[in-house]
């Protein structure tokens, strides 16, 4: 399981602690230093079954500075995926990628399935 996270993010810290407390093995990846590629994001988006908007860090400063709330609806999926691949700070974190699932953000109830 791959966890893309930003070390200074308090939600990411909580998520990593939760994984460790529950003895769940994971590979850690710094989302800014190793930004996800368009190919990775496309694959994860299709695997997730989630709306593409769920992959955006809508509370982040960069999202707000770029005015993406108003711009995203007019953009194609491909344009949105390409934009996400430009900067890890645009991506909702933590982003968890497993063999048959993808989770965005940390909601403990959703993460319970990882114990399975």
How would you describe this structure to a colleague?
- The protein has helices at about 10-20, 40-50, 60-65, 70, 75-85, 110, and strands spanning about 1-5, 25-30, 95, 100-105.
- A hairpin with a 4-residue loop joins strand 3 and strand 4.
- The chain has a four-stranded mixed sheet with strand order 2-1-3-4, covered by helices on one side.
- By secondary structure, it is an alpha+beta fold.
- About 25% of the residues are buried.
Return the average pLDDT rounded to an integer: 96
Number of strands: 4
Structural class label? alpha+beta
Helix percent band:
25-40%
The separation of the N and C termini measures 13 Å
Q: How many DSSP H or I helices?
A: 6
**Major sheet: order of its strands?**
2-1-3-4
Short description:
This protein is α+β, with helices and mostly antiparallel strands. Helices cover 38% and strands 12% of the residues. The chain is built from 6 helices and 4 strands; from the N terminus they run βαβααααββα.
Please supply descriptive tags for the structure shown above:
38% helix; alpha+beta; 116 residues
Write the layout of secondary structure elements.
Blueprint: E1 2-5, H1 10-21, E2 27-30, H2 38-48, H3 61-65, H4 68-71, H5 77-84, E3 95-97, E4 102-104, H6 108-111
Parallel strand pairs: 1-2
Antiparallel strand pairs: 1-3, 3-4
């Amino acid at each position: 399981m791959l966890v893309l996270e930003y070390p200074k993010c308090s939600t990411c810290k909580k998520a990593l602690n939760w994984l460790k407390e529950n003895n769940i093995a994971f590979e850690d990846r710094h989302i800014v230093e190793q930004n996800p590629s368009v190919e990775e994001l496309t694959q994860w988006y299709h695997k997730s079954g989630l709306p593409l908007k769920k992959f955006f860090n809508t509370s982040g400063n960069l999202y707000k500075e770029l005015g993406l709330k108003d711009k995203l609806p007019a953009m194609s999926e491909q344009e949105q995926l390409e934009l996400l691949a430009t900067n890890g700070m645009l991506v909702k974190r933590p982003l968890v990628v497993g063999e048959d699932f993808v989770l965005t953000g940390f909601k403990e109830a959703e993460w319970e399935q990882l114990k399975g």
